[in-house]
Specification:
The protein has about 100 residues and is α+β, with helices and mostly antiparallel strands. The protein is built from 2 helices and 4 strands, in the order H-E-E-H-E-E.
């Protein structure tokens, strides 16, 4: 049976998110870029926004290396169905195999 998740679903967040305080990269990125997806503009539920490390180095929390993405755009990038361009736009990889 599925476990009910409450309080913004902290159990479902990656361990590297930590508690969202004013010294976490997630907090800093959401504050700097705003609570909306940099790919598609989604902004309805902040809990559905991730912060992506552009260079894929989870220790590099410089603001230039971070982008706010909704879980759907983030999934496209991490699964290879899309990539970020140099101007921080999402480009679909039409040749990606499902």
């Amino acid at each position: 049976m599925a476990k009910r998740l409450e309080n913004n679903m902290p159990e479902a967040q990656p361990s590297h998110y930590g508690a969202e305080t004013n010294n976490t990269y997630r907090y800093n990125a959401l504050r700097f870029y705003g609570p909306s997806c940099g790919g598609c503009g989604y902004a309805e539920l902040q809990q559905m926004l991730d912060v992506h490390h552009i260079d894929h180095t989870h220790g590099n929390h410089s603001i230039e290396n971070l982008i706010v993405l909704c879980v759907w755009c983030h999934a496209l990038i991490t699964r290879g169905f899309a990539e970020l361009t140099e101007d921080r736009k999402i480009k679909r990889n039409l040749g990606a195999v499902a």
